[in-house]
């Protein structure tokens, strides 16, 4: 397996790895076991056709329950996840991933936010590791290695059952000693307390590298909102960080307020960074402007040996060209690889904390 963050091997290079795929049509991923269901969410549609004709294309997750969508014995690497459900569930379903039997999840993120869709509305995202296509086809290609096993779950925190379609493709293969485990954490400040910074990662210990950021940013003031710097505190950093950017739009690869003269805020989606979502007030119920943006540190991972902390300032402008400390609605997902299966993470949010409001 290529080390996460490095170039993939030649597509012509043969391997001893075995490909398996888990879906409602093959819930164990076992060889020769796909499409054999006699009951499922498509049984009524296939009543004239019978077994093998899309009898079980999806699962229903009742309100207030947690369901395994994949359980795999290792070693191996999850290579691709495709999943879809109704947009109203994107912030109500919590995605978790556990590695090597660890009861603590390495990944604990609302489903929509994990795929850059934190506002519950579709936005095309075309990147190296995450692709979201019409209408809500979620795809990710994060490499997810494990040594003893992997478990992926969805918990429905909402008040209604959720119908979910999915496919998890993985390779059964050895995992090298230097390979890290994928982690992802979600946080939200709504609103951000005045004078505070929004924390993306805090209290992470171990050796690893940071590989991705997604922000769902809701603006609660007039004017430009992205003067704040993104800061990475590595290892022994305390008051000052080792890596400090020059502004929010700069970190996400844009410039000058994402403002194309005569057009205003302009969305873009590229392999490694983008401002892929811009939601403007609608003159009725929608609040002020909301944005979705991502940056994948795949060619440029941020490496640390012992500890990691990451935050972003929320700054706008006030009279006299002075900075204004903002109190915005900011949610984030941070992805990193680590030499251990779990680390410090924020408390699990409840449905009210997740609600888009």
From TrEMBL:
Annotated spans, Disordered: 18-44
Stored InterPro entries: DUF2961
Protein name: DUF2961 family protein
Source organism: Pseudonocardia kunmingensis
